[in-house]
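A quick aside before the break. I want you to see a complete sequence-to-structure record at least once, exactly as it would be stored in a machine-readable document. Don't worry about memorizing anything.
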Amino acid sequence: YPFIRDHYPSVQNQARYQRIRSLTHVLLLLDGADRETRKKWLEQYRKIHRQLIPHTGFFLRSNYFGKKEKLVEEIKDYRAFYVLGGNVFALRIAMKLSGFDEYLKKISRLPNYLYSGYSAGICVLAKDLHGLELVDDYTKNPYGYDGTIWEGIGLVDYLPIPHYDSINHPEYHLIMDTVKRLDEQGSVYKT
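That is the input. The structure line, written in tokens, reads:
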């Protein structure tokens, strides 16, 4: 899937930055994180990446829940999407309620589009989110959606596991427990 790229900010990848930059403008999605985390990430992103990647911060929750046509009209000119992490289940709900998940499926096979995700932003692309409940609270539902969405968007046929073997990451032990459980279940994942 050339459409999909996972991204770890600690790795400087100038070729990727140049590819994203050549796509003109990046839509930065932050719907998986809580308010304070989003604020912190936006500030960090502006400091680190603004010179390299022109972007527009965007929230699905603001105006697009139940308004898929409005969302498509607003984002149709973007060719690159950078989806930050947070809670994978909250992010998945936001994508469903806005129709962003359907839009991604539609454009995923078209040329000149790029999806880059950090943490939950890449996990949400799996077919199934089972296993990630060891890391993220699946009951966390800031959007009033009835229930948990366990089905991912389905653009990759494995479960991405971010932060694996990152001993300084605060979720390190939870990730390692997740990998152990996935191994026991024979699940397909990538770290």
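Two observations worth writing down. Residues 35-49 form the longest helix (15 residues). The longest strand covers residues 26-29. We'll return to this after the break.
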